[in-house]
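Researcher: I'm preparing a figure for a lab meeting and need a structural model of a single chain. I don't have an experimental structure, so a prediction will have to do for now. The sequence is pasted below. Please return the structure as tokens so I can convert it later.
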Amino acid sequence: MLYVGAEDEPELAQLTVAARADVTQQRGYVSPARGERLVAHARVVKPGRRFTVCAGEAYVDGGPTPKTIATMLGTMAALAP
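Model: Understood. Here is the structure written out token by token.
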């Protein structure tokens, strides 16, 4: 299990991590991580039986508007048990 942000959103904090392997991964570092709080959001763009496409974004919070510091796009392949 992977626990993320349990102090802020306990109902969303527990994520199940299945056996997956990276097929591709693209990361973009947009700006330095300077701020009070680092926040990351991820989502499944296209789920599939064999491959799953995921996207994510990290940003710093603490100013008038959140500032994006990194983005990610990846394809995962399901591994046979």
